[in-house]
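User: I'm curious whether this sequence folds into something compact or stays loose and floppy. Could you predict its structure so I can see for myself?
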Amino acid sequence: MEKTLLEKAKNKEISIEIKSAFENEEIPSLEILLQNISEGKTVIPANKKRKREKYYAIGKGCTVKINANIGVTANYSSFDKELKKAELCEKYNVESVMDLSCGAFAQRFREKLIREFSFIVGSVPVYDLSGRFKDFTKAKPKDFLEVLEEHVETGVDFVTIHAGINRELVEKISTKNRILNIVSRGGSMIYKWMKENKAENPYFEYFDDVLKILKKYDATISIGDAFRPGCVEDAGEELQIRETYIVSQLAEKAREYGIQVIIEGPGHVRANEIYWTVKMIKKICKDAPLYVLGPLTTDIAAGYDHISGSMGALIASLAGADFLCYVTPAEHLRLPDLEDVKEGIIAFKIAAHSANIARGFKKALKRDIEISIARRDLNWEKIINLSIDPEKAKRYRGELNNICTMCGELCAIKNSN
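Assistant: Here's the prediction. I'll summarize afterward.
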């Protein structure tokens, strides 16, 4: 069997994917990137069946990347509308898109993402599996594996697999004082399946078979966190920590098998607890790339969760998180529309860019310096073009003929110039 990207890195082989990802970073040398990949501290999600113009590295020494969630559903989401969301992601240089599709059009939508866009494509096979049965709990373990293989055979670069929730943890739920038991959709589905079937999580029990499937296509595994906190009060609770230890063991097994691994993290966390939470997960999981949802710093921001989430994302990035899953204003309320998706992308792009400046990446800082010089020179065209959302900046600026409505002739820059 052809070597996986992780195995190539261990053998100091420079593949097209590794070379492309290296050129997009500020890592001092290819040798350092190869070392980080071989140690499981950096990943380049790249299914061998899918060829792209651009590849991205996620992890140690790399710029912080973001992911956007989209996808068709059986009842509420149109195919064309979700494609427009994908186009928004391409427009704003989102590095990764997670396809959460389920229902009759899921496979067709996933194939279109893989074929027509250049970003990383991830998926959650268990969502798709749920649409194959009237009663999801009637699925057999082989069905879990078959749908997983269908996804990676199509060309998905990484898959979220909730393998860390097992019978030991499920039996403890009733004894723990969590406000929200499970808020992970995939995790809750597997929990229900386990309870109904009085059986072990198929992804946990047949983890070796999961790895064999992933290795065939060199797909990366993102190990989902079923017990991530769904409110700030549940953060740091025992089940979350126990699952992290289980996930770390599964991650080690996957790496030994030649599979690249991403670890998924919280969730809802108090701002002052984000730093140590990220450090804890990083330490337990041997500095594997960490993929965080938010984290959201408060539970009251319905309609503004993209703000709460981007605040938490910046703190998490400064603590060592590598990969940010965006949150939109529609979080907790409804499926996001196009404007929600744009707001979520922009908020998390700002968080990632801010983290990259703080981490000392020169390209990120260069853009800030360029726009500062443009402001000094009152070069409005350049200010607009360098902003993160030029369309909005241009609309706000309007046709003012170089007159700023904020200060007018009292302009601080004019006076100091």
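Summary: Residues 232 and 298 are 6 Å apart (CA to CA). The chain has a mean pLDDT of 95.
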